[in-house]
Write a structure and sequence with these properties.
- By secondary structure, the protein is α+β, with helices and mostly antiparallel strands.
- It has a domain of 194 residues.
- The chain is 44% helix and 14% strand.
- The chain is built from eight helices and five strands; from the N terminus they run H-E-H-H-H-E-E-H-H-H-E-E-H.
- The strands form two sheets. It has a three-stranded antiparallel beta sheet with strand order 1-2-3. A two-stranded antiparallel ribbon has the order 4-5.
- The protein is globular and about 55 Å long.
- 37% of the residues are buried.
- The mean pLDDT is 92.
Length: 278
Amino acid sequence: MTMHRAISVPEAKAIYRAAFGPMGALPDTAMRLSDLQQDSDSCAIAIAEELRHEPGLDAKGCGAYLVNRLAHEIGKVLAALDLSGHDLRALDPATTGFVTTLAKLVENGETYLYLETDVTIAPVPAGPAADAAQAGLIYQALFDPVVTGVSMACKLGPAALWRLVTDGIAAGYLTLGTQAGEAPRAIARAEAILKRPGTRLFAKQLNFLDVTLPAADNPLGTDLTETFRERAGCCRYYTTPRSDGEYCATCIHRKDRADRLRRAMLHRARLAAGLPGL
């Protein structure tokens, strides 16, 4: 059994369309990506938001969390636009904005706080697909004010932040491609853009990893294979008080990523089978 589900073309188009989010004028409360470089006060406010859900983060951690969050949310929009045939040249940091709200998630009896991020972009028309090199340059231009502003504000090097941008965009392609039943195409496109030298997004450490939970270990009784994105960068989760100094499961610093991801799959399978989680 694989997590790559075959679905119809109309279903795939509907999934991509839903991921675009709003297109048009930015809400009054939105912060533009360009603001993070042009307005130091706006950048400081955006960085400080991370403390609302992750108390105890230092300045570098807040900056990394902000860039990581924006890259993941905007990455899904970019993947949806690109994979469904839209003209990426319409993207602009001055007309791309986000609104952040504190939200709660209850899972397995535990409550977690997180920052919900609503992204708005200017209208992007349908058009021919950009080649991989052009797409990389467009994505770089979109995130350049984010990385520049946050790096100056939190004193975390631009190279570290660019790796988080790459990780977020890669995750967006994997997420949307998996949901639309065409993960292999999405992964190939992401690698063509993000593992190509010539932009700041280039990260040779980026990898997509297939992990299998054998039927003998799966309480659902089938072989289960799932594709994960292995990070090229570090989100600095290990610096948070709740981490106990541990890296996240897909961190580039981990050597046991496959084992930890397989354990996470087993945890979900046990819950699906009505058994206690790990």
